[in-house]
Amino acid sequence: MMVSIVLGSLAIAVGVLMFWRLPLPNSEGEHADAPLVSIIIPARNEAQRIPVLLKSLKNQNFTEFEVLVVDDDSTDDTVSVTESFGATVLRDESKQDGAGKSAACWHGVQHSKGEWLLFLDADTQFTTPHSLGNLLGVYHQKGARGVLSLQPFHSIKDLYENLSAIFNVIVVVGMNVFTLWGRRFRPAGSFGPCILSNREDYLASGGHKKIEGALMDDLALGETFLEGDLPVYCLGGKGIISFRMYPEGFKTLVDGWCKSFALGSQSTHPLVMAMTIIWISGSFISVGALISSLLAMDPVAIGLTGLLYLIYALQTMLFARRCGNFRWAIFLFHPILFTFFAGVFVYSLFRVHVLRSVNWRGRKINLK
Questions:
Q1: Model confidence pLDDT, tens digit, residues 2-14
Q2: Residue 364: pLDDT band by 50, 70, 90 thresholds?
Q3: Higher pLDDT, 72 or 342
Q4: Quick one: 200 and 280 in the same domain?
Q5: How far apart are CA 82 and CA 221, in angstroms?
Q6: Residue 286 within any structural domain of the chain
Q7: What SS3 state is found at 267?
Q8: Is the pLDDT of residue 270 over 90?
Q9: Are residues 188 and 326 in the same domain?
């Protein structure tokens, strides 16, 4: 029993080192003097989600931008919905069917005019009228070089969406730069939903053209900048940008997280990966110790293991709520969240390394 308590306490301590903090954009104000910004949005069957983003763009105080939506073989009303907001819709007729997000982004750049390039996923939205200006201000503060990427704050509405809690934590931690040691570790890449760069650095790195066909385009794009000795900055998006992931239902949530999650983990630093494994194990250790103490009917052991279980629930809640507005009560059942994460991760390994394919948005993506 004491061994489990010690191991569980160690996992909590490792968790603190693993996810020390998630810095947020800190701008003194909007960057009114920013150059023209080209906002490029790859979209495939986003008719239900893209209106929220386009509406938030219309509400921005900073207005020196163009919006280019690149339709990626949508079969719904994405094009007509987008045009109703006055955005420019592009389609690359020369590409092969299903060329994917990177090809769409590159096509958008070829038709853009801005000195700065902002790539947004169609399910994101700016949270205030100042958000875009503040984002540009942060990039200016960092010298307007390389890449600034934000992980949007996850907006939760339906109960099943809370199953994404551990995934959100692991995605952020897996970028390597949020441990106690900060940027001493090389970033694993960039966050995909919100990426800002200047045109010169983007083209010098090869941009999305260089990574065309990469399943983890966000990590691959950040890597191209790092290879060119260009900085990659990763921050949390709370207060600037948010998204609601997989509102279509449970199956889409599983497919979404399964899509190359195993591949993405390969970019995580070995030490960070080891800490992550220890932290995940702590949840199962804490519940195992609590069950054992209850079966033994030992009041002291029940008190100690119960306290360990609750501390683990609290830590998991604090970590997850840095990433999204997850309901606090679900963390009382944190072993369920970790079990779901482990199951989907194993399924992702099977899809990636055995079946060599993943499913996403009605498209089967074959892996090389």
A1: 889 999 999 999 9
A2: low
A3: 342
A4: no
A5: 26
A6: yes
A7: coil
A8: yes
A9: no
SS3 state at 368: coil
Residue 258 lies in a domain: no
DSSP letters of 212-277? TT-SSHHHHHHHHHHHTT--EEEEE-TTTEEE---TT-HHHHHHHHHTTHHHHHTTS-HHHHHHHH
- AA identity, residue 87: A
The angle, 0 to 180 degrees and rounded to 10, between the axes of the packed helices 2-18 and 299-323 is: 20
What is the arithmetic mean of pLDDT over 81-85?
93
Q: Are strands 124-126 and 241-243 parallel, antiparallel or unpaired?
A: antiparallel
- The verdict on 161 and 216 lying in the same domain is yes
Pairing of strands 232-236, 147-151: parallel
Q: Write phi, then psi, for 97 (nearest 5 degrees).
A: -60, 135
Q: Other CB atoms closer than 10 Å to residue 140's CB: what's the count?
A: 15
93 and 155 within one domain: yes
Report the percentage of the chain scoring pLDDT > 70: 92
- Cβ neighbours for 104, distance < 8 A, ≥ 6 positions apart: 42, 43, 70, 71, 72, 92
Q: What is the pLDDT of residue 262?
A: 62
52: domain CATH number is 3.90.550.10
